[in-house]
């Protein structure tokens, strides 16, 4: 198939201004936020409505062209690194919030809607869309669904998959498929909407998503507890859960991260602390009060040197600023940053943290660890310089060992960043051969020409 | 044209700054251009990737990269929000210079920068000439922004409504000034800046009045010119360097505590770019630039932090009517100055009404407005809407370049809103008290 013909056909669908094919533009669609090698596609196309999107998928299907959908390109697993003979479909202009239904508490959106934009629009109506990935200011709902994105509120409110009520999408043949509904309950047909969650663009191209909304909690309370050791912090986490309290967020910062944040933002964090726990409870004012006091008590009981409770919004902001700046603070230490998300059962956090410290020593690399202690989803963050080939080799070995340790502890390779290209070669270790084969057969049946984001999730078919 | 390999070599000099970008994509959430186009090549991440590609010799010619690099407001919104601390604006400016030096400046730009801008006298001569003739080609709008527009359809003016060139530029009214230190005990030098000099001399006149009131000694040397940002934005490091050296010489002649400007863009250029981009070799001048840029302050910042403004608003109550404030990118994002202009507005007896997205770029971007007027206007229209939504009859902002853009947008929409510098509000307050 001649490149020029394809481009002409695409222009017929969306107009010349929405087709990009210059070498320079292609370079800008060759990467995402994962630390992987770039691949240059042949064209990028920006549909303005669902009809155009359908025609594009159909065209790719007819010409057997690989296609990769790109939202904000912030995924950390290579999910939007295209195929070198493929087309990139951009969802930037499919960014309308089609409906926010207050009576039935759901929202209908196009895939290119930015997560934070939706969250703000919903909040204006007193409703709540809880999934809040760290990238929410840029990430798109399509990307969130396709990666099953999590966030800080995972412990109490779950992750993206818990909010997807319905999805419509174009399949590999360009047919429009609908699944799920606008009702809380829905028992018809296969749960195809569920299948699309975490599918990373390998099973279909989504054009509309129905999301569940919940009432906005009336009150919240934040606190920060300082510990000498990370074990004390982990025991507190276990104790809070055992006490049947489910905080909205329960975040951990290790000593390396604390020092990085402090040198970056001078927030007055204790440099010798082994760990910080940042906790927020929310809900009904009475219950928030009660839970808050109990959590504070538990923190002290399990060895916190100090517990500071925010008394107003300013103080709350200051507490969370430390967590929000964790990534920035670490990023400034070295040119390359590899953000991992190996996740273990909550109770295994001390063991995992210990493993991370050993791995960091064994391979002589810097690892800062912070993350969602409440749900076992840690973010070991490796700081390096990819140009240093020898060190990069050690980093790759360390990452593999992190994967192995997480699996040994009964965990998963990725709590929220997805499989993409980065973790595809390791997936078998987690789920076994037959799961990989099943997934490949499923894909092959739905997409016989292997044009939907080839290479991702299941590796080569 | 030289071969691409040598260009790649030069771009490689930026490598240490380029690798800081972790491709996280956060800049997409704040880039005013990306908001309009949704194109990756328009946002910092894409442009940095292109420079990376140029350094790796991935392109046959530099034109495509250059064109995309120039599609940028240099507003620094990306840099201010970058988790990795990429010094985006400095990288882009250096890259523009490398490309311009490799390709050579276009003949038109050679005339503008090398002959006109870099020599303040010639520049003044031509702008005055233009000022005298502007009535022939343009007519005055009857609106609170006091703009003019083209009499006949003109490709150069488009459908712009721009504040007219002053009949007499500031340096004609006040060629030089050196007043003694008064009760404040402070001596300040004023860097006037082109736009204030030629379009808004009223702001500089107000500076004189306010400083007199507070007993601040003021030094305004003769022969000032442009801070150099237009030349730099076009990659002309030579003219820029010449201008910096010229001003270092001028301001050397007197002792003062602060160098103050009422133009956010000048302040940011002097503080951030004079020290980092100046390419003269003499270490003496470098040290002088460092010292001067260190004591350079935005006028709002200076007045609020170094001069005791009496809390007069509390005595007289708010009687000046509600005012909304637009944060110039070069003040808030480049220098972190956001509190002080607001304080000055309140100290002038006005109620401050925050607009939605006060710190969103107005879309001016210097020469960006010239070459991409369509997109620039779309960005500016968003600003105009936020201003109109506040129902204030005055919008204040600390940058004369933003004032031009905002006046244009308000004039087009027919909004009855005046555009002022916070300092003008303060001067008005002192006069009418
Ligand atoms: C600084 C930073 C912080 C982050 N924090 C978190 C975090 O806290 N939690 C978390 O879970 N993730 C996090 N991430 C990862 C990333 O932001 C998420 O994976 C996010 O969901 C990706 O959204 P996106 O719009 O960028 O999608 P993209 O990266 O553009 O795409 C992701 C995948 O979705 C597919 N896709 C996109 N749109 C469609 C569609 N319409 N139909 C079919 N497939 C589609 C793509 O093909 C790709 O496989 C973070 C990333 C960064 C850089
Ligand atoms: S925010 Fe900074 S690090 Fe992230 S992509 Fe943009 S420039 Fe790069
Ligand atoms: S300087 Fe402004 S316009 Fe240019 S890339 Fe950064 S945010 Fe976008």
Task: Give the helix proportion of chain B (percent range).
Answer: 40-55%
Overall pLDDT score of chain A: 95
Oligomeric assembly: heterodimer
Q: Give the spatial strand order of the biggest sheet of chain B.
A: 4-6-5-7-8
Rg calc of chain B: 21 Å
Average pLDDT across residues of chain B? 91
- Measured between the Cα atoms of the first and last residue of chain B, the distance is 64 Å
Shape of chain B: globular
Query: Regarding CATH, which class of the largest domain in chain A?
Result: Alpha Beta
Q: Would you identify the CATH architecture of the largest domain in chain A?
A: 3-Layer(aba) Sandwich
Keywords (chain A): FAD, Flavoprotein, Oxidoreductase
Cofactor (chain A): FAD
Family (chain A): Belongs to the FAD-binding oxidoreductase/transferase type 4 family.
GO molecular function (chain A): FAD binding; oxidoreductase activity
Structure characterization notes:
The complex is a heterodimer of chains A (461) and B (433). With 461 residues, chain A is of the alpha+beta class. Chain A folds into four domains: 3-90, Uridine Diphospho-n-acetylenolpyruvylglucosamine Reductase, domain 2 (2-Layer Sandwich), CATH 3.30.43; 97-215, Uridine Diphospho-n-acetylenolpyruvylglucosamine Reductase, domain 3 (2-Layer Sandwich), CATH 3.30.465.10; 219-408, FAD-linked oxidases, C-terminal domain (Vanillyl-alcohol Oxidase, Chain A, domain 3, 3-Layer(aba) Sandwich); 423-461, Orthogonal Bundle (Vanillyl-alcohol Oxidase, Chain A, domain 4), CATH 1.10.45. Chain A is 36% helix and 20% strand. The longest helix of chain A is centred in the last third of the chain and has 20 residues, at 389-408. Chain A is globular and about 70 Å long. In chain A, 52% of the residues are buried. Chain B is α/β, with parallel strands linked by helices and 433 residues long. Chain B is 54% helix and 9% strand. Chain B has 24 helices and eleven strands. Chain B has helices spanning 4-12, 15-18, 32-37, 44-55, 63-70, 77-81, 88-103, 107-117, 120-137, 170-173, 194-198, 201-213, 229-233, 237-251, 264-277, 283-294, 299-306, 312-316, 329-335, 339-347, 367-371, 373-389, 400-413, 422-432, and strands spanning 138-140, 147-150, 162-163, 177-178, 187-190, 217-220, 258-261, 296-298, 323-326, 394-397, 418-420. A five-stranded mixed beta sheet of chain B has the order 4-6-5-7-8. In chain B, strands 1-2-3 form a three-stranded antiparallel beta sheet. In chain B, helix 15 (264-277) packs antiparallel against helix 16 (283-294) and helix 15 crosses helix 19 (329-335). Chain B is globular. Bound molecules: flavin-adenine dinucleotide (FAD) and iron/sulfur cluster (2 copies).
């Amino acid at each position: 198939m001649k490149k020029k013909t394809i481009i002409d056909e695409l222009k017929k669908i969306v107009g010349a201004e929405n087709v990009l094919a210059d070498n320079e533009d292609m370079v800008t669609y060759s990467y995402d936020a994962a630390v992987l090698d770039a691949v240059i596609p042949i064209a990028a196309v920006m549909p303005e409505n669902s009809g155009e999107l359908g025609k594009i998928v159909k065209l790719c299907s007819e010409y057997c062209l690989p296609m990769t959908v790109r939202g904000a390109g912030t995924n950390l697993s290579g999910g939007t690194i295209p195929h070198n003979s493929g087309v990139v479909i951009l969802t930037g202009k499919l960014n309308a919030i089609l409906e926010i239904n207050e009576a039935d508490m759901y929202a209908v959106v196009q895939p290119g809607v930015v997560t934070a934009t939706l969250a703000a629009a919903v909040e204006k109506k007193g409703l709540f869309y809880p999934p809040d990935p760290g990238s929410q200011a840029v990430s798109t709902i399509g990307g969130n669904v396709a990666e099953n994105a999590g966030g800080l509120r995972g412990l109490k409110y779950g992750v993206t998959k818990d909010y997807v009520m319905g999805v419509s999408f174009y399949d590999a043949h360009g047919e429009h498929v609908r699944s799920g509904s606008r009702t809380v309950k829905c028992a018809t047909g296969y749960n195809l909407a569920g299948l699309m969650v975490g599918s990373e663009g390998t099973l279909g191209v989504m054009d509309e998503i129905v999301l569940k909304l919940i009432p906005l909690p009336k009150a919240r309370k934040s606190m920060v507890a300082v510990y000498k050791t990370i074990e004390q912090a982990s025991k507190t986490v276990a104790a809070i859960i055992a006490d049947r309290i489910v905080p909205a967020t329960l975040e951990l910062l290790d000593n390396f991260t604390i020092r990085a944040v402090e040198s970056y933002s001078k927030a007055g964090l204790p440099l010798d602390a082994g760990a910080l726990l940042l906790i927020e409870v929310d809900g009904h004012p009475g219950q928030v009060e009660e839970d808050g006091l109990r959590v504070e008590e538990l923190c002290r009981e399990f060895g916190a040197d100090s517990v500071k409770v925010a008394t107003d919004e300013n103080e709350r902001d200051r507490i969370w600023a430390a967590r929000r700046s964790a990534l920035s603070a670490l990023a400034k230490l070295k040119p390359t940053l590899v953000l991992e998300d190996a996740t273990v059962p909550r109770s295994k956090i001390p063991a995992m943290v210990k493993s991370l410290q050993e791995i960091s020593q064994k391979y002589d690399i810097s690892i800062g660890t912070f993350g969602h202690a409440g749900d076992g989803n840690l973010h070991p963050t490796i700081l390096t310089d990819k140009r240093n080939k020898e060190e990069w080799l050690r980093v790759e070995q360390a990452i593999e060992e992190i994967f192995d340790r997480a699996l040994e502890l009964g965990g998963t390779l990725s709590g929220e960043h997805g499989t993409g290209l980065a973790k595809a070669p390791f997936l078998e270790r987690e789920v076994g051969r037959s799961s990989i084969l099943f997934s490949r057969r499923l894909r092959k049946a739905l997409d016989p020409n292997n044009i939907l984001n080839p290479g991702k999730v299941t590796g080569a078919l | 044209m030289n071969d691409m390999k040598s260009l790649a070599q030069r771009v490689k000099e930026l490598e240490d700054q380029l690798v800081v970008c972790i491709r996280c994509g956060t800049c997409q959430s704040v880039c005013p251009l990306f908001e309009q186009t949704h194109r990756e090549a328009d946002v910092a991440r894409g442009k940095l990737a292109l420079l990376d590609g140029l350094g790796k010799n991935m392109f046959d010619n530099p034109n495509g990269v250059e064109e995309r690099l120039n599609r940028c407001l240099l507003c620094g919104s990306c840099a201010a929000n970058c988790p990795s601390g990429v010094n985006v604006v400095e990288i882009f400016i250096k890259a523009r210079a490398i490309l311009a030096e490799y390709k050579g400046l276009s003949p038109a730009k050679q005339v503008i920068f090398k002959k006109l801008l870099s020599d303040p006298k010639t520049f003044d001569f031509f702008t005055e000439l233009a000022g005298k003739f502007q009535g022939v080609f343009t007519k005055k709008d009857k609106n609170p922004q006091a703009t003019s527009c083209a009499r006949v359809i003109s490709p150069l003016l488009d459908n712009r409504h721009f504040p007219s060139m002053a009949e007499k530029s500031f340096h004609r009214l006040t060629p030089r000034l050196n007043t003694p230190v008064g009760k404040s005990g402070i001596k300040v030098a004023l860097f006037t800046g082109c736009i204030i000099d030629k379009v808004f001399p009223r702001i500089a006149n107000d500076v004189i009045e306010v400083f007199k009131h507070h007993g601040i000694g003021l030094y305004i040397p003769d022969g000032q010119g442009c801070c150099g940002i237009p030349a730099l934005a076009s990659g002309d490091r030579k003219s820029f360097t010449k201008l910096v050296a010229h001003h270092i010489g001028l301001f050397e002649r007197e002792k003062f505590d602060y160098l103050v400007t009422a133009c956010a863009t000048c302040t940011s250029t002097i503080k951030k770019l004079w020290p980092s981009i100046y390419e003269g070799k003499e270490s003496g001048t470098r040290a002088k630039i460092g010292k001067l840029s260190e004591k350079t302050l935005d006028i709002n910042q200076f007045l609020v932090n170094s001069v005791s403004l009496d809390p007069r608003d509390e005595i007289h109550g708010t009687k000046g009517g509600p005012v909304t404030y637009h944060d110039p990118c070069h003040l808030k994002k480049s220098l972190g100055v956001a509190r002080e202009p607001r304080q000055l507005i309140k100290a002038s007896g006005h109620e401050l009404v925050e607009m939605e997205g006060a710190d969103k770029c107005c879309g001016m971007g210097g020469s960006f407005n010239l070459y991409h007027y369509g997109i620039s206007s779309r960005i500016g229209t968003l600003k105009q809407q936020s201003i109109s939504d506040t129902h204030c009859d005055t919008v204040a902002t600390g940058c004369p370049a933003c004032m031009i853009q905002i006046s244009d947008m308000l004039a087009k929409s027919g909004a009855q809103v005046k555009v002022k510098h916070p300092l003008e509000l303060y001067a008005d307050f002192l006069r009418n008290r």
